[in-house]
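Please check the following for our workbook:

***
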Amino acid sequence: MNSSILQQKGIQRAMLRLPEAKIGSPRFGRRLCKLCDIADWNDPEFIEQSSDIMMRAPGFSSQHRKIWEFTQAVYALKQLGVWNERAVGLSVAGGHERLLYYGTHHLARFVTVDIYGEGDFVSIESDKEFLANPDAFAPYPYHPERLKALYMNALDLKFDDNTFDFVISLSSIEHFGGLEQAIRSLREMQRVVKPGGAVIITTECMLYDQKVVDWFLPEEIAVLVEKSGLSLIEDIDWSLGDETLQYVCDMQRDDLNVTPHINLTIEGKPWTSINLVLVKPHSVSSGIPLLETDPMQLDFQIQHLKPTWQLLLEIQTKIAKLEEQASLLVR
């Protein structure tokens, strides 16, 4: 199958159910709070950043929404001044995605948490082996001393308040069990990021007035933002160009490696990625100036957390063995 087949199954603009609110000027040179759109690949700076993340030749421009998510996140963090060698970041439900390894070349520490070894994405995104051996999943050379992986539930982050310079969660919160659980996770991210720090979320946004499992309608995304305790840095741009609407990938039938990989559909219900860049108000602080997070102090926090997730993994292993033994007895 090729992109010409994808093009024949485009999204009908008349069917779109997206807000038409007027938007102000972007906070920076390029709009950050927006839907994934093929036009974003027309920006040379976007192409340069995506090429660097993927560690491909200059000009690499695969039109895939996951690459778009990585690129939007890094660009936003750079613009907000929290993507640098002094910064300590957290990826929530980060699995073992490429951006974690890329971050070790630019950050003091990059911590990722996930329910490794559990859930629907174990085989492709959250293998429990990553906890002990991140080298096995590295797409390219990285700095292992700067990457820390922990077993942890996104709804209950075991970190002190105001610990991280930024938090990201890319295409994950829609898998947490619904709108209320997604709000709860966002409130946890708000708690552990420093006042003035950034929280960057990408999630699935439905384009028609139809739901797929727990993917979000635009009005639900508005509720997420409202109840997060965080503030958007700019208005959301809900527009999609005509070229973007020409392409849609059927998750049940099509080759998911074909590009453009921007809009997806199940049972005729289309969605795409939306990027939200939020900041924690300074008023949340107690008024005491916050110092830079010392990576050594963060490591101390993590060392006290490790016995907990190690114990959970041991329990899971024992349960699996008992279930296997029980199935043999039944036979």
Notes: The beta strands are 34-35, 88-92, 109-114, 147-151, 164-170, 193-206, 231-232, 249-250, 264-266, 269-279. The domain at 3-10+26-294 is CATH 3.40.50.150 (Rossmann fold).
